[in-house]
Design goal:
By secondary structure, this protein is mainly alpha-helical. The chain is built from six helices and two strands; from the N terminus they run ααββαααα. It has one domain: Alpha-Beta Complex (Sufe protein. Chain: A), CATH 3.90.1010. It has a two-stranded antiparallel sheet. A hairpin with a 2-residue loop joins β1 and β2. The chain is globular.
């Protein structure tokens, strides 16, 4: 699936639920899918600045595609970073840079999340984009 297709998938998935609690449950379920974060990456160097919770994001370039390991110490935040990594990961860095990063508006997260968590999502997106920029030059 393309980045845009994944954005549409998650947008439609969130819109499927009328109830805010159901949307929260969906985000929590996404976080439960992430079981493969290597402990050796749980370092300050990989923390995403600007998040209320601790969020680790580790880039890995493999066969010219940028992949990510991710984790968080907060369940809802973990669900969000897992979604973002699913959307943008496994793509060429240039494709990530050229993608739509206005997810907060697309997903209408500002009506679902607190302002602090919404800012955290922006910080995660910025970090993904920063990594894509670094790896696009390699």
């Amino acid at each position: 699936m393309s980045i845009q297709d994944k954005i549409i998938y998650y947008k439609d998935s969130l819109e499927y639920f009328d109830d805010t609690m159901e949307k929260y449950k969906f985000l929590l379920e996404q976080g439960k899918k992430n079981n493969n974060f290597p402990e050796e990456y749980r370092k300050v160097d990989f923390l995403v600045p600007g998040c209320q919770a601790k969020v680790w994001l580790v880039p890995k370039l493999y066969k010219q595609k940028l992949n990510f390991y991710c984790d968080s110490d907060a369940f809802l935040t973990k669900g969000m970073i897992v979604i973002l990594v699913d959307i943008y990961g496994s793509n060429k860095p240039i494709d990530i840079l050229n993608a739509d990063f206005d997810l907060v508006k697309t997903f209408k997260l500002n009506s679902l999340l607190t302002p602090g968590r919404t800012n955290g999502v922006y910080a995660m997106l910025k970090k993904l984009k920063d990594y894509a920029e670094v790896f696009s030059k390699k």
